[in-house]
Specification:
The chain has a domain at 49-137: OB fold (Dihydrolipoamide Acetyltransferase, E2P) (Beta Barrel). Helix content is 20%, strand content 33%. It has helices spanning 13-33, 49-54, and strands spanning 57-62, 71-83, 89-96, 102-109, 122-127, 133-137. The longest helix has 21 residues, at 13-33.
Amino acid sequence: MKHHKRTARKGHSGLLALVVLVAVFGGIAFLVASPMSSHSGVPSGSQDPKSVLAEDAFYGSIVNTQFTESMRGIVKADTNCKPVERGLTNCIAIIMGPDGSEFHFNYSHNMSNQSCLSTGDHVAIELLGDGNVKVIRG
């Protein structure tokens, strides 16, 4: 009587499980490390975000004085830039009005999509209905 030896099957199931596990944890790590895209820099109820970003607009408030009318100005400095929540950076731009008045514009933006305002940038400041302002570079 012949004895049949069972050949040991090379188990690839353990390797497959390891690859799947690494892929799952890699995906979770990617999602956790990625900044949230819930803040587009566009106020709710605004027009198409693509057209707003095309005009290089920033949204925020004038913090050193009451702002009452739209005007043009020149950025003298962009200060105090520091990271805040969800991958955004908060800055305070100092903008000189046409009559020499100084406005401190407090705003947050995503640095990977839109660079800070720079010294010498010409901007238009528009008063929004909610008391905030929109600053358009260019």
